[in-house]
Amino acid sequence: MILELSGLVLIVVAAFVAGALNALAGGGSFLTLPALVFSGVPPIAANATGTAALLPGYLASAWACRDLIRAPLGMTVPLVVFIGMLGGAVGALLLLATSNEAFQLIVPWLLLFATLLFAFGPRLNQHLARHSYGSGGLWKRLGVLGVCGYGGYFNGGMGIVMLALFRLLGVHDLNAANGLKNLLSAVLTLMAVMVYIWGGAISWPEIPPMALAAVLGGLAGARIGRALPPVFLHRGIVGVGAVTTMLFFLGR
């Protein structure tokens, strides 16, 4: 498939801004998924392609935070990585088993859920900071598996879900939680992309320009983040999520 100029510009701009958002606070999928859908890519392929295009950014973030990574109490980093790989693969397989028609009905609700998580994520984390549930190794493993499964199925709001889970598991150091989030995001996304490739779900013509734009956006986002007030960024992501969600509901 040869990309039309208008579609190419749309997905490149979306990937650049998405890369910047992921470097700052997450939320890049709010842009890549609708941009690909609006440019003519079927919903399942759009979700898989957008995830694959953002993979280099996740890997770079995990490497940059490697010295901050700490496993929750009662778990080890290799165990967390294994569960992340398993969850990402299971979520991706569930996506491949979903029809485009069904996914198109589910997407608005997933976007709404992710937008609400972004809107109330800081309050949720403040609440969870006062509560930790450090006991119960099985529940910890199931929690990580569930979050990674969600990430393998639908990337939107994944970072907020992870940070909330880590709070519940007693990881209250924000830097450690962020390092663990970056590691799990990279691991589960890598596994999900491998499953997407196996299932033939990725639209390859969009990958090179989007991946390059996302990397450049990530580099720009890292610089912008030093000067941009966090509250402004948070409100901007919530606004983008709300508009995107509304457009998908109206388009059903």
UniProtKB/TrEMBL annotation:
Superkingdom of origin: Bacteria
Membrane topology label: Multi-pass membrane protein
Transmembrane portions of the chain: 44-65, 77-96, 102-121, 142-168, 180-198, 232-250
Protein's UniProt keywords contain Transcription regulation: no
One GO cellular component term noted in the UniProt record for this chain: plasma membrane
Subcellular location: Cell membrane
Pfam family membership, one: TauE
Alphabetical UniProt keywords: Cell membrane, Membrane, Transmembrane, Transmembrane helix, Transport
Family: Belongs to the 4-toluene sulfonate uptake permease (TSUP) (TC 2.A.102) family.
Protein name according to UniProt: Probable membrane transporter protein
Organism in which the protein naturally occurs: Ectothiorhodospira magna
